[in-house]
Amino acid sequence: MQAAAQNGTSFVTDETLSENLWLRRVVLTQFRNYERAEVTVDARPVILTGANGVGKTNLLEAISLMNPGRGLRSASLPEIARRSAPEKPEAWAVAAEVMTEDGPRDVGTGRDPLNMNGTSRERRIVRVDGETCKSQQALAEVFSTIWLTPQMDGLLRDGAAGRRKFLDRLVLGFDPAHAGNTSAYDHALRERSRLLKAGNTDEAWLSTLEDRMARHGVAIAVARREMTEKLIDACAQTVGDFPIAGLALEGTVEGWLDEKPALLVEEDLRSCLGESRSKDAITGGASWGPHRSDLLVHHQEKDMPAALCSTGEQKALLLSIVLAHARLVMLERGAAPLMLLDEVVAHLDEKRRKSLFDEILHLRCQAWMTGTDANVFSDMGENAQYLTIKDGAVFLAHTGE
Ligand SMILES: Nc1ncnc2c1ncn2[C@@H]1O[C@H](COP(=O)(O)OP(=O)(O)OP(=O)(O)O)[C@@H](O)[C@H]1O
Fold first, then answer.
1. CATH code where residue 291 lies
2. CA distance linking residue 6 with residue 373, whole number of Å
3. Where are the coiled-coil regions (predicted)?
4. Domain that includes residue 67, residue range
5. Among 17, 60, 252, 310, who pairs with 340 as Cys (CB 3.0-4.6 Å)?
């Protein structure tokens, strides 16, 4: 496999490249349109083609679920189960063999047939190397994944929630504990809102929840700040034909961290939450905390906020950030993250497409890329492997020219 960028200027050199990380086998059971499908591949990038609706995105979604969170569609557990009317949605599972520096690892996830209640409290099962794990964090410890999908096209234009989620996924690539902090914070925030809305003034319970929000919230803000700082440097060294994305993290808690140590910021957040109870009881949510922060993105060369850029320019900015992140993960964890690029390539012009392929090959990243037309991937030649999907089965298509 080719290991050097042809015309990129990546700061990841051949000396810093080490073992790569890749999926060798993925098995889907009762997952969306798949009754059972098995895919075995090598370390090269994977090109997935097929007609509309054959299940390309579903396969990427299955891979994305082998990470903490709700996957690339933010789906609920019952929604994913294969609907084969008149039966009701049931259990589903995804399993994979991941090749890592430490050898092959087995990861798996799915809906627990013994605990299917369809409520938000239902949790998916996570298994790593045959052991059932207490939290999804165990998945992030094995490998990290980053994705871009057509649903993310409005990410730089729409509300801040999507950008926070995007940034949190980038943080996870470095810090598996971030998954625990975000879910503990969200849980405490929801519980506090519920109590306040119900007019409950139980001081001890509210203080406990606000203490949790302060501790996990400041940990989230610290991690997001560190990630943004690293990304600012990495984005400045963009490769090939991608624009430089200027980044800034906007948020009150992040601002406090510029001025004082994390422990004092925790105290400030705790007391602000305590003081805003009556207001929050009326407005819902919480007036303070990292759930109100935003990742601001700017097109440096045009000196233009990303939201005012064209759809193609916004996509190029997002890819520029994702590639910068992959280079950072490569340097810090020794292997680039898995990349899931759904319907991304067809929308790039030829120069950018080539830059993307060069960087993917340079980083030895197993990128899974989908499209309806295999021709747009022809520059990959034999550096990639080609799969096609038909009638719920995945086949090896051809080896590229
Ligand atoms: N829970 C489910 N059970 C059965 N089928 C489902 C379920 N959820 C989605 N599907 C079906 O899976 C099919 C494949 O969807 P998917 O989004 O993966 O297609 P795709 O190949 O990416 O298509 P496109 O090229 O149009 O983006 C769709 O026809 C959809 O209706």
1. 1.20.1050.90
2. 24
3. none
4. 18-144+335-400
5. 60
